[in-house]
Q: What sequence folds into this?
């Protein structure tokens, strides 16, 4: 791991996602519509065509309600109580396009916005809001053949459970065919879990659309929980299906940045999950048909595991998750090294790392997502760029 | 539909789930443990060995916090504020075993408990708590082969979406074999969605365990959203994967009890979903290998659709969802009519309906779940009883 790069990742992980491209004294257009992530029949939160977000929370006897979204340093957006018992407020500027996690502080307690859905981030189920992106078409649900996303429960002796959960995207036609497919192992970020890539990331829809347009070879994607030593008792609070038991391990915080590189996960991935997937799905099980990618902490896991197991993967991708150096790779020549981030993160870092790798004879590609930070639109776009480069 | 029975279903749907088997003046044992559904690292809510539930909510500047669980008529459980800024309280009696939905009222606003997970019920994502059942072994995660639960996105012209979501349980070994399987179409209740049976109901684990013990033939289960005219905009707030679009239909409340029998769903199920499943999974697509079951409103849908389409299903099951009469069935002789409910619902109704059907020459079975009401433990047990009777 390039420590300078890691520092940048840490520093940019929690910056404000308020767009800096527009000033806050612009006139706010009154064309607000319910966020697409809202719970059924819920009118708030809303988003306008400029990317402002407006919130409305019922709490007639509360003294204060605050939304964590907004200018980070100022504690988000303070809502104002009306005579009707509702607190309302609008972000002081447009938000970056894409998905944002948030929560409320109601009279000093942290709660979710009852108007919208819940998404696992920051090691808790957070509220979520979507600012429509100008390029959202690439992850839209379209009238194309759809792959499936299935929950598997694989036995994991190393973590003492008869069923650890992973989600597996199989491309359209998988269920009827006899073809074998390559596999991408795709990891979430710190505080997230195995649902992040298919729910917040729309990984399945991105693949469906790329495949329908002939832009990528069909392949399987496997997404699992990337931590073994913290934060994840057996039953999932919200899930496709609840796998049940699985001991909550003793011991304390094992997250990020403390205990960031979870050696236990390498065992789960390489000794338990990969063999299970190769035994239960029609995969090509050689290095040439296996990729690993991850966002943020998942990128750090990818970095560590690909270097520790040079015989397992032939495609490496770090999405807002650091860089590789020629020295680290040494004699290992993966078919592809992909590094990406948002333009509000460390574009110079990933671009210069790619140049250094190319100068040293590696096949390296960098991608910078315009006008996004350490958030999911960066990673949706990164997957959309990465997929066509895999398994060529 | 037997209207008398329907009335009973309605009347019992929202009764208290506080156990009446034990008095509230018993000594409360101080052996509380975190609920198995809690979010990672969260210590509250807790449950003791008698079934009391204890809550602890941080809201230092709030005046009042109430939990909806408890004696229904009295507005649930009022929490008391401590000097540390936390509100705490314990139900005034033991809760029924099994899963319960609930929410908080904080200074007059409705929020979820940040300590636990979220479950779709009452047309919103609610909090959930699990009171361990004495017979919970049958839905435990065990060291047995596990089936998968997969999201499919099937095109639905009748509801104007290129991808409506269903969840499909495939039994262990499905992915490697060439065998065909019978199919059970299994519906959720009012205010729930297609996630209810696998998340709250543990349908996949119940099947895994029954199959491992040789108690049931392996079969596929298909679970989809049972409403077409309300409450469900395209993107799911919390989901395995987000299918994206799908127009939110114009028009008002189309739920239960108003608009209870959603004719649009019959079209989705029989003309869109079933053909898709038969085309994409290795099913037996004849009547003899197809069952329909549902809980509560899903039972009413089952009742209506099986009678309207007598050529489609050979096994009918209503779980806390009414009864059939010999007059309704007429000359149609399904291989099985299964009717169940909790002992706190209408056991006389389902038992006497089964007697009447048997007297008239039908193969009818009734099942009463002891000491449960209109809640998920009744339906977990019902599925556990039903599955071995199917496709024999």
A:
């Amino acid at each position: 791991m390039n420590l300078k790069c890691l520092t940048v990742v840490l520093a940019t992980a929690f910056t404000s996602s308020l767009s800096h491209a527009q000033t806050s004294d612009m006139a706010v257009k009154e064309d607000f519509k319910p966020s697409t992530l809202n719970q059924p029949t819920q009118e708030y939160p809303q988003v306008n065509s400029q990317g402002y977000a407006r919130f409305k929370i019922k709490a007639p006897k509360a003294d204060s309600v605050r939304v964590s979204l907004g200018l980070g340093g100022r504690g988000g957006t303070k809502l104002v109580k009306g005579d009707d018992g509702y607190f309302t407020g609008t972000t002081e500027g447009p938000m970056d396009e894409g998905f944002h996690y948030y929560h409320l502080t109601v009279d000093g307690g942290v709660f979710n916005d009852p108007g919208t859905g819940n998404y696992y981030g920051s090691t808790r189920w957070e509220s979520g809001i979507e600012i429509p992106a100008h390029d959202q078409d690439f992850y839209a649900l379209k009238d194309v053949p759809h792959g499936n996303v299935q929950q598997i429960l694989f036995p994991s002796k190393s973590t003492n459970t008869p069923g650890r959960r992973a989600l597996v995207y199989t491309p359209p036609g998988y269920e009827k065919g006899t073809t074998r497919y390559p596999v991408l192992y795709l990891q979430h970020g710190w505080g997230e879990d195995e649902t992040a890539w298919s729910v917040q990331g729309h990984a399945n829809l991105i693949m469906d659309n790329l495949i329908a347009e002939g832009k990528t070879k069909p392949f399987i994607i496997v997404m699992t929980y990337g931590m073994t030593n913290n934060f994840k008792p057996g039953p999932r609070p919200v899930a496709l299906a609840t796998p049940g038991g699985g001991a909550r391990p003793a011991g304390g915080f094992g997250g990020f940045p403390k205990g960031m590189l979870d050696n236990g996960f390498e065992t789960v991935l390489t000794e338990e999950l990969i063999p299970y997937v190769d035994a239960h799905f029609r995969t090509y099980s050689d290095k040439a048909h296996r990729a690993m990618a991850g966002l943020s902490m998942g990128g750090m896991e990818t970095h560590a595991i690909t270097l520790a197991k040079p015989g397992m993967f032939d495609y490496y991708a770090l999405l807002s998750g650091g860089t590789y150096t020629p020295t680290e790779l040494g004699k290992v020549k993966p078919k592809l090294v992909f590094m990406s981030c948002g333009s509000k993160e460390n574009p110079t870092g990933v671009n210069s790392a790619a140049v250094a790798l190319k100068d040293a004879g590696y096949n390296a590609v960098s991608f910078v997502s315009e006008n996004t930070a350490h958030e999911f639109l960066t990673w949706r776009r990164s997957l959309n760029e990465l997929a066509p480069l895999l398994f060529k």
